[in-house]
Amino acid sequence: MNLVIGSGPNGLAAAIVLAQAGLPVEVREAAPVPGGATRSAEITLPGFIHDLGSAVHPMALASPFFSKLPLAQHGLHWIWPEAALAHPLDDGTAVLLERDIAATAEQLGRDRAAYRKLFEPLVRNWAELADGALRPIGWPKHPFLMARFGIRAMQPAVGLARALFRGMRAQALLGGVCAHSNLPLEAPLSASFGVIMCAAAHAVGWPIAQGGSQQIANALVRILESHGGHVTVSSRVQTLPDHPDLTLCDVTPRQFLQLAGNRLPGDYRRKLENYKYGPGVFKVDWALREPIPWKAPECRRAATVHLGASLEEMALSERQVSRGRIAARPYVLLVQPTLFDPTRAPEGKHTAWAYCHVPNGSEVSVLERMESQIERFAPGFRECVLARAIHTPAQMEAWNENLVGGDIVGGAVTPMQFFFRPTRKQYATPLPHVYLCSSSTPPGGAVHGMCGYWAAQSALRKP
Fold it and tell me: pTM score, two decimals?
C-alpha cells in the first residue's frame, strides 16, 4: 500500500495522482478531520462557521491540476464576490480590485495607463502564466512570458510600486497584495505575490468556497475515494514505514526530520535542520451581529479587505516584523465571507476572519492593535462583536503542526529557498521511495495542490 502522510490539499492532490495511476493509496491524517489548513468549524458560537486556515482561493482556480478535477460534481461550489479586494484609505474611500482591469484602473487616476500596461499582457496569457508559476524551478515552458513576469516578480514590492505608480492609491493597492508574501516589502521577491495575485484577480477572481474551505478538502477526499483511495483520520504516523512502496509526506522539514529519525544522511539532515521558517500570524475570528460598518461602503462588495492605508505604512509594519517587533498599526488581512455566503452564519448574522504578521512564535497579543485597525476604517466594529476566537502562532502550530511558529506558507521565501525549496532535491529524499510534497516544496504556499501533484509525478517516474 502506498502511503501519503497528511491530508492537506497537497497530500490529497498527491494521493489522487497516485490513485489515478492505478496504485492503491492510503492517506493518514493525525487530525480528526481531513484538510490540513483548509478546514472550517464552529469555534465562536453555534451556527457560525469559520475557516480555520485558508479562506480565499485564487490559486485553487489557477491550479492546472485542480482545474481538471470534477470538484463541482463532488460538492465544491465557488462563490465570487463582486470585487476581489477592497483597500480602504484614510480619506473614507477605498480602492477596489475589480475583476475587470479597466474598472480597476479607472480608480487610479494618473496611474491608470501604467496599471493596464502591467497587467493586461499577464491576464491575456493567464493560462500560460499560471502554468509557469506553478511549476518546479527549471527551464520554463513559456520562457518569454515568464521572463516578462520574472523581471517584475524578482523586485522588491516598494521599488516596483514606486517605479510604476506615482499615486498613493495604486501604490497602496499593489503593496497590500504584495504583503501576502510574508516578506519585508523592501525585500527581493516580495513583488512576486502581488503581481501574480492581482493578475489572478482579473483572470479568475478570488473566490470563497460555499459552506467554508472545508468543502475543498471534502471534495478532494471524495475524488480520491472515487479512484479507490481512502483517508484514515485520527491516525498519526510516528515514523516512516519500512516498506518498498511509495511514501509521500505532506509535512515541513521539521516534521520530516522527526519521521525519519536517524535514517537520513548527515548532509541532508543538516540542510533540513537549517531550513528557515518565516513570520507567524496572529489570527482572530469574530461572530458578528451585523456586517462590518465600513466608512467606505464599497468595502462590502469584496470578501477580502486589506487594512494598511498607505504603501509606507504597510512597509513599516512588515519591516518591523522582520526585525522581531510588531508595528503599532499592523497590516491586517481581513475576510468577510458571510456577505456572499449566508450559509456560514445564522440568519442576519455574520462572521469575519483576520490575521496580521508577527515574528515567528511570538507570544504577544495583537488583538487590541488589530481591532483598532478595523475601527479606524469601520467605527463601531467592536459593538458588532458577539464572540471572538483568538489564535496565537503557537496555537496555530498546535492546531496544524505544519504551521511552524505560525508560518502559514511552509517556510521563509528567501532567494535560496525560493529556488531550492527545501533543498536542491526538491521532492525526492535520500530515502528510497520517500518524497516530500508539502508547501515547503515548489511551487510553495497557497491552496493549489501543485506541490503534491509534482511530487507524485516525480515519484511515478522513478523505477
Answer: 0.95
